[in-house]
Amino acid sequence: MSYRCPALASLFLLSLFCMPAHAEREVLRILAWPGYADADLVDAFEQRRGVDVEVTLVGSDEALRSKMAHNQGGDYDLIAANTAEIAYYVSENLLQPIQPARIGNTTRQLWRFRDYRRIPGISHDGQVYAIPYTYSDMGLIYDKQQFSAPPNSITSLWDPRLQGRVLAFNTASHNFSIASQARGRDPFVIASDDFPQITEQLIALRRNVLTFYSQPEEAATLFRDHRVALLYANYGRQQLKQLRDAGADVGYVIPREGALAWLDCWAISRGARNVELAEAWIDYSLEPPASRALTERQGLSNTLQEADDSGQPGRLIWLRPVEDDQRRAALWQRIISGERPPLEERP
After folding, report:
1. pTM for this one?
2. Contact 67, 31 (CB under 8 A)
3. Higher model confidence: residue 42 or residue 22?
4. Could you tell me the domains of the chain?
5. Residue 273: is it exposed, middle or buried by C-beta count within 10 angstroms (0-12/13-18/19+)?
């Protein structure tokens, strides 16, 4: 004969009511650029892994730095950044080393993207901190109806005949680089004595443009609605595809001075909660369907297959760390706001 203790039975029933309806799902927190984590690809990854993915999008390197500076990068598990920025984050101890051998699909990548020691910015002290994902040059997009011949120089952005019909990107570092490039100087190392002239040149650019955009979708809308003639394509061929898909009759050129070019990589934050899950996303992004989607939807090159040879790779200038990014950022904020820079920054 058996019996049930009323007290134990009550405790058992109470424990049932207190149990959560379902176990809490793991969350992967991604900080990336538009087009790098599309909703359908995120949904497929969530279903496969039984996790949730939170995606935060940024529109500039400065915005990326600002978000990573908060909580020492602990708000995100995985970030997408160009090689120059990766070098910065490593120097700030915001990233952790990656073991490529744990990410099986890296073996699908073209060899030049697996030769980590030869890619500036991603290897430090014998350790790898980032896995290449996508790349593009930053050329000039022009309205074919407004040019009898394609513009062939970065200086076209300053052409007074195009005043009010030029779009440029709202960023400090790249704008100082192209202004230095337009003067025939090193884009990444500006001598202290050259800053006043280059600052004045960027003030002139501000006066010549319609505006400075932040997101590719914003640029596409402005291009169509304001009969823009010339656009500096910070997002590269992603913007070219976007405009052509919208029916714009546009061309794309790499200026004779060369085009700045970026190689964006996945990197794992020092504060990542689940390194294995971050590695799983990188591996997933390097599967052929996901890589093809990046190219077909965004017009960007992936690291699994050779890009169209029209990119003129011999004329690309890969991004490198600059001489003083804080000085560039402070001056740019004054320029974009319409303030005059300090006297020492003027000729």
Report:
1. 0.81
2. yes
3. 42
4. 27-135+262-310 (3.40.190.10), 137-260+322-345 (3.40.190.10)
5. middle
Of 92, 97, 53, whose CA–CA distance to 73 is shortest?
92
Nearest-angstrom CA–CA distance, 105 and 119: 19
Residues 337 and 202: beta-carbon distance below 8 Å: no
The residue type at 298: Q
How many whole angstroms separate alpha carbon 269 and alpha carbon 110? Answer: 25
The span from the CA of 318 to the CA of 323, in Å, is 15
- Each residue's pLDDT tens digit, 102-124: 999 999 999 999 999 999 999 99
> Residue 264 — very low, low, confident or very high, per pLDDT cuts 50/70/90?
very high
- Answer whether 257's CB lies under 8 Å from 158's CB: no
- Is residue 302's pLDDT more than 80? yes
pLDDT digits (tens, 9 = 90+) for 66-81: 999 988 889 999 999 9
Q: Residues, the chain, total?
A: 347
Report residue 240: phi and psi, to 5°: -60, -50
- What mean pLDDT is predicted for residues 225-237? 95
- How far apart (Å, rounded) are the C-alpha atoms in residues 285 and 263? 15
Question: Is the pLDDT reported for residue 131 higher than 70?
Answer: yes
Residue 26, helix vs strand vs coil: coil
The rounded distance, in Å, linking the Cα atoms of 100 and 238 is 27
Count of CB atoms situated within 10 Å of the CB of 276: 9
- Residue 235 · residue 140 · CB < 8 Å: no
CB-neighbour burial class of residue 111 (10 A; exposed 0-12, middle 13-18, buried 19+): exposed
pLDDT tens digits for range 13-29: 444 444 444 568 999 99
Which of these, 268, 266, 322, 269, lies nearest to 294 by C-alpha position? 266
Q: E-assigned strands of 240-285?
A: 250-253, 259-268
Query: Within 13 Å of residue 278, how many CA atoms lie on the same side as its CB?
Result: 27
